[in-house]
Amino acid sequence: MADDHKHSATAAALLPLLGGAGNIVSVTNCMTRLRLELRDRALVRDGALRALPAVLGVVEDGESYQVVLGPGTVARVAPELERLTAGHGDGAVTAEALAERGAALRAERGARNATPGKLLLRRIAAIFVPLIPALIGCGIVAGLAGLLANLGWLPALAPALGAVASGFMSLIAVFVGYNTAKEFGGTPVLGGAVAAVIVFPGVARVDAFGEELAPGQGGVLGALAAALLATRIEKWCRRRVPEALDVLLTPTLTVLGAGLVTLYGLMFVAGEISTGIGHLADRLLAHGGAAAGFVLGGLFLPLVMLGLHQALIPIHTTLIQHQGYTVLLPILAMAGAGQVGAALAVYVRLSRNGSIRTTIRSALPAGLLGIGEPLIYGVSLPLGRPFVTACVGGAFGGGLVGLLNQLGDKVGSTAIGPSGWALFPLLQGNHGLGRTVVIYGAGLLAGYAAGFAATYFFGFGRGALEELNAAPATETVPEKAA
Question: Which sequence ranges are marked TM in the entry (predicted)?
């Protein structure tokens, strides 16, 4: 009950700083952030909002205003804030002129930031991000089942845990199809129904151009394509089928048309693409592991800043579905290690700046668990150079993990979402759990050390270092100190 009161109090504290209930159009959340659609951005009191103890950072991304609260907390605060804003929609306190002004501001920001490519990536992320909790839960259960099997403990329980872990993955195509249709304006259950064709065991009896299909062939990519096609067919039918026959003909034509195309085309094409992704990832790390890891680990933080990391979600999911784990995520997770090392160096170098040191102390535990937003938006990015040196740390950590992969030690993750220390329960490799954990831990240490060293020696210009250390403890972080 105390926690419930705390989350209610957090929502109540956020509400006036966001411009009141009438200024909030919608409230959603991802794993760490509140995602808010606002009528008038100018009504937000940024300074007071950032000063709230529960707020770890603030991000503006296209049309959404995002408040970083951290995992667990955000899932509990979001419904409380949504409850407080209920009933304060278009006809409440906010005047029409204010709503129009907010719409104009959103359109202006949208024209500036929402490129077609980024919008597409956001829609793809909206399909896969809701699946992450199930991927994490099933991944940890699968790891526990494998551990019990390897140790020979509780032999009767291991198969049950394996079934619990594998059930979701065997039907993930259905969930992808459902979310795809929902995101692109179709009927979700029709998208799921068409995608279900891919995992139906009976497809093994279908002869598609001289080859028998295999259940699951095409995986999540096939499900995505099938549901997109189903949505297009459904919309076409809605425009042309007489209203009296719509309830019968539209779903029938949608399932029939998209289902047949899936069987006699999409499953084969998507299957080839999925296999190609697996081969490419293996070849990339087998033949250029050190260089590939260095580049991937070094560029991941900028990709996150640009929103381009969302393009990797289907790739991770495809690798997990076909190989059991994704070898890319542990390398990309090294970016967080570089961020932690950079923050530690900032803490040491700014020995007289109490404000920044306090921010680092509060954000560091989240950073160690792979939640990078508090350190990124509260420390390294506002300071400028430490963001670049954090990328250097990530590059060295990724390079080490990539090198060891090239030498034959694969390190993968059975789920996407966590990183940092939180990734340890999800690790899987080709040489046993103990060795995999050691290699991943060594990569983290390399990222911490390289990020610290690069930031300590190159993270500040002389003038900026003197200015920041001369700042009183009550000062806020400057916009740019590089």
Answer: 12-31, 124-147, 153-177, 184-204, 245-270, 290-313, 325-348, 437-458
